[in-house]
Amino acid sequence: MVLPTNLKHIASASEHAEILKDHENVMVCCGRMGPMCLPVYDIMGELQEEYKHVEFRDMAFDNPEAGVIRNIPEAGSFMGLPFTVYYKNGKVVAATSSIQTKEQVKEILDREF
Amino acid sequence: MSENYFDSIIIGGGAAGLTAGIYLARGKASVLILDTGTIGGQMVLTHQIANYPGVEESSGYQLSMTMKKQAESFGCAIKSNIQIKNLSLVDEIKEVELSDNSIFRSKTIILASGGRSRMLNISGEKKFKGRGISYCATCDGDFFQDKEIIVVGGGNSALEEAVSLTKYASKVTILHEFDHFQAFEHAVEEARSNPKIDFIMKSHLTEFIGDQKLEGVKYKNLSTGEISAKNIDGVFIFIGYEANTEMFRDSELKLNKWNEVPTNDMMETNIDGVYAAGDLRQKRVRQVTTAVADGTIAAVGALGYIYGA
To answer: Of chain B residues 19-38, which have a CB less than 8 A from chain A?
Structure first.
């Protein structure tokens, strides 16, 4: 179960673990094809060229395997899609809930990666 | 002319801007469409569009992408998620400088930057966005299963979304600043007859309260001035739209008291060669269809200006 976006997808928990193991800097946006999620996928798609040292992925929120994102402690208070999580060396370094602007995303990428 | 010169620059890539781009490009004008966000504007934020003639039903995203593809196929250059640093509208050659210092010039400019959901701009609103505060019932409703929520607003969106949120929430309180609703009567009746919905009238929210997530609100009774507190799990805000005209407010462009752009029926503003189309205009009906109409008229006017017709 993957989202019909132009991003690379994560389809399973094992794939999620593998990406975190293989890459130092990873940004994953976990959502649906809804109004608050689409702008974030669009921004990620645009930033891929500029941030070649970051792996950009999406994951379908309703995929049962997306529990690896839905259930992280950092998302405990989240009540808005998408859940966007930033990983450095496999560890969560930032997480946001709901729609974000390009500036907000870049601020985190510049700060953490 | 340089590669940074266009016959027309369109600021805004929603329904109005993309339509203007399609018409201009089909008229053999060179066109650059700039958008400070995602191409599609308010359309992208609409789950289902069922009243756009010729398209039985589409998501706002699909309709946006189709319009974008059409605009590109006719030769429009499109840049999204940009920031405008400076804008010069009055000279014969208009100029737009972006935050990356790139400068684009054109003979005409079409302002189509649209509108956005109005925020309450009260303490805690930014902090709790996505942590109890939402602007999209269809996106976030299921996070509020068996929880108590407030819906702020009194228009059609507020009342219809309040009813739809009763599918999830144990109780929905509609909080509105007046003693009556602006929504259509059928929407008011549906809300009033729903046993899960309560009303707090003539009141304003004054503060959002919580630690990691929203836990409560304070609100003021506008008749008595009394401030009350209420424990709550979520707040959905539907208080209308405002024009995205901040970037023009220091320019010579005339705005009305609501910061909308007045135009004549050819979408001409008070500045020669500068047109406005879509939701940023001073007008009553804001739909995809009316934005498309505005964009068409603005493009036809701009083509006349470019070619001296």
So the answer is: 37-38
